Each structure stands twice: as C-alpha cells, then as structure tokens.
C-alpha cells in the first residue's frame, strides 16, 4: 500500500515545496506501515492437506453419481437407479469375466456412494 505515502508527498509538494514533499512522504510511509500492520495483513498461507489414505468423501460420492451436492433426495435416488441399471453385473454376464468384474467394481462403487450420501443426509 503505497497510496498514502505518495498522496501525502504530493500534498506536501503542493503546500511546501521539497521539504513538504519529503515530510509528506515520511508521514505517508508511517500511515502505510500502521495500516498495513493492522488492517491489510497478508492472509496466512493455509497448510495443504496431504492425503495419507484413500477414503472417498461425500463430494466424491456426488461425482460418482454424476449429480451436484445440492441435489434433492429424489434426484439422488433417481441417479442411483439409472447408474445401477446401467452398470449392474447381470447386464454384462455374457460378455466375459473381465467385463463382469469391472461391472461389479463399478456397481459396488455406486452403491457405496449412495449409502454414504444417504448416511450424511440421515436417510435410509
């Protein structure tokens, strides 16, 4: 914040020439220091959270279901039903073991996401 030191320097220059400008600059410097000390402090840097485990959060669960966190309970249920039907292991049973295992993992992920959202919202 250098605005005050130059403002006071300009006022000092207009009123009293060079000595006024120097005095105004010094006065503005003091005002800038005081204001920056009490009002314009830089925000403390937030420590970055390092993830040491891989537990999904509720916001991740909303991404799994493809909905926003402010979705209604009916929208959560509907998104779950659509994804459960799409990724149910029985739908890909005839496509081989690899496809079935992938569908089981995805279906489990969708179901766990729905359960965590419902638990966070206090629903069954």
Molecular structure report:
There is one protein chain. By secondary structure, the protein is mainly alpha-helical. The protein is 67% helix and 0% strand. It contains four helices and no strands. The protein has helices at 3-38, 58-65, 73-86, 97-121. Helix 2 (58-65) crosses helix 4 (97-121) and helix 3 (73-86) runs antiparallel to helix 4. Mean pLDDT is 76; it is low at 48-54.
Using only C-alpha atoms, the radius of gyration works out to 31 Å
Highest-level CATH class of the largest domain:
Mainly Alpha
Q: Mind telling me the CATH superfamily name of the largest domain?
A: DnaJ domain
In the CATH hierarchy, what is the architecture of the largest domain at level 2? Answer: Orthogonal Bundle
Please give the domain count.
2
How would a textbook summarize the main sheet? none
> What is the end-to-end distance?
55 Å
* Order of secondary-structure elements: HHHH
- List the total number of helices: 4
- Protein structure class: mainly alpha
Q: Based on Cα principal axes, name the global outline.
A: rod-shaped
């Amino acid at each position: 914040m250098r605005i005050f030191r130059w403002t006071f320097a300009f006022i000092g220059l207009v009123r009293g020439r060079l000595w006024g400008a120097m005095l105004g600059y010094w006065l503005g410097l003091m005002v800038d220091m005081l204001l920056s000390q009490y009002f314009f402090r830089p925000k403390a840097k937030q420590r970055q959270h390092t993830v040491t485990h891989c537990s999904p959060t509720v916001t991740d669960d909303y991404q799994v279901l493809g909905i926003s966190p402010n979705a209604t309970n009916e929208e959560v249920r509907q998104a779950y039903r659509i994804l459960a039907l799409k990724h149910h292991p029985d739908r890909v049973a005839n496509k081989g073991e690899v496809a079935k295992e992938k569908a089981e993992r995805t279906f489990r992920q969708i179901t766990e996401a729905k359960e965590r959202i419902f638990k966070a919202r206090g629903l069954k």
